[in-house]
Amino acid sequence: MATITSIVDTTTTTNQGKAGDTVQINGSALSTTTRVNFGTAAVVPTTVTATQVTFVVPSSAPCSGQVSVSVTSSSGATSNALPFFVIAAPTTTGTNVTCVSAATGGPVTLFGNNFLTGTHVAVGTVGTVAVTPTQPSQVTFTAPANPGQVATVSTQPVTITTAGGTSTSGTTQIDYYLAPTITSVLPTSGTAGDQVTITGTGFVGVDTVTFTDSAAATAPAVFTPVGDTQLVATVPGGLATGAGTITVHTCGGNSNAQPFTIT
Q1: Burial label, 172 (beta-carbon count in 10 A; 0-12, 13-18, 19+)
Q2: For residues 159 and 153, is the Cβ–Cβ distance under 8 A?
Q3: Considering the entire predicted model, what is its pTM?
Q4: Cβ–Cβ < 8 Å for 211, 218
């Protein structure tokens, strides 16, 4: 009678895997095998020798959990059974940040389920990052920079690949931002309370407008976005008179420092 000594998934090199994986059954007296019993499913073997049988984990495999595997010979005799563990596919639910700088990338924590056998995280067309999760529901990685980005904002799907497969693309996304650029400030000087029109590019998701005075002191300004290329800021109080600058900040980073004189 056939005897099974081990079961090895050729992808994970363990007795764990997912639907579609090729599995090797090792043992003795296996040459007359006609059927692999994968739980309640009957699977036709791919190859058969005296010491090895291979088969593909069927699509009917459970999403996760233990399955008994045995073989049945042409005479109807069934071998001993050994366990095989179906690894659940990973799912993602979100990240701790919604955006990173295109110039630098940045740290991101990905949340979801079934991460423990994860090998890498993919960030759309930007690149992949190797990971070794220590928790089933989250993993932290450094999103790579996106130096070839042209648009102000580039939305990229984030997926994780584990022994159970790859999470669904599009469920979790992250935005890459280019740094804003200031091209002009009108007027070029003013005092506290004056309104200044700042024109440039990449004014998407502006979170701060900063005035720096002649003594290098800084103050945030109240501002109103007019569009992706313009905003109106109010000169803050408490700054020293003289030549200073204005900068605009988004998730993409700080803009160039545009000259502005406090009067």
Answers
A1: buried
A2: no
A3: 0.83
A4: yes
